[in-house]
Design brief:
The protein is α+β, with helices and mostly antiparallel strands and about 200 residues long. The chain is about 45% helix and about 20% strand.
Length: about 200
């Protein structure tokens, strides 16, 4: 097994068991394995593949139910924020989420402050911060915790507020040719398909 494979496997365990994001999980994996800091890291596709393997081995009985609950919670917030053209991304969209995963919604607004105003109107206490967005440009993220009755706990929800013009580029296929995120209609369809299984 190469060093990159080892890093991906350890990072996958940290992602699934501790809810870490890929970047921090890879860096912590390097540390845990006692490798030099400058060791080449596996790409996110390799980590995602290792996450899928880890879930299949250790969480196959619980993960599908947890993923379904997270997708339902994401849909609830997408419907509440429908006027901002929400798109679900990350592990909840790609199917690798567990109860420790956060929900990431990309919003596309004509006026970036309108999303904040909507949260205030909904009585949601949120924390604003600046993060790297879709095109490696800084965007505002509005983060809050939302209760999930199905999971019996609160889940982190992050709204990344993009300019309306960024919507077109947001739907380009990822490195595997997949849709990187789904709109309200696609998430509804995904949940309908899962209900039929």
């Amino acid at each position: 097994m190469s060093a990159q494979d080892e890093i991906a496997a350890v990072a996958a365990r940290l992602v699934v068991d501790e809810g870490l994001e890929y970047g921090p999980a890879k860096r912590r994996a390097v540390k845990q394995l006692g490798l030099p800091q400058r060791t080449a890291l596996p790409d996110n596709d390799a980590v995602e593949e290792a996450v899928r393997e880890h879930i299949a081995l250790f969480c196959a009985d619980t993960q599908p139910t947890e993923l379904l609950a997270l997708r339902r919670l994401a849909l609830y917030w997408m419907e509440r924020l429908e006027r901002f053209r929400p798109h679900l991304g990350g592990a909840v969209w790609h199917g690798t989420a567990t109860r420790l995963s956060d929900i990431y919604l990309q919003l596309f607004c004509e006026d970036e402050k309108s999303a904040e105003i909507a949260l205030i109107d909904l009585g949601v206490a949120y924390e604003p911060r600046t993060v790297t967005g879709l095109h490696q440009r800084p965007v505002e993220a509005l983060s809050f915790h939302a209760p999930s009755r199905e999971l019996g706990e609160t889940i982190g929800v992050h709204l990344l507020v993009n300019d309306l013009d960024d919507l077109r580029g947001a739907l380009l296929p990822d490195s595997k040719g997949r849709r990187p995120r789904g709109d309200l209609e696609l998430v509804r369809r995904l949940l309908l398909d899962e209900a039929e299984i």
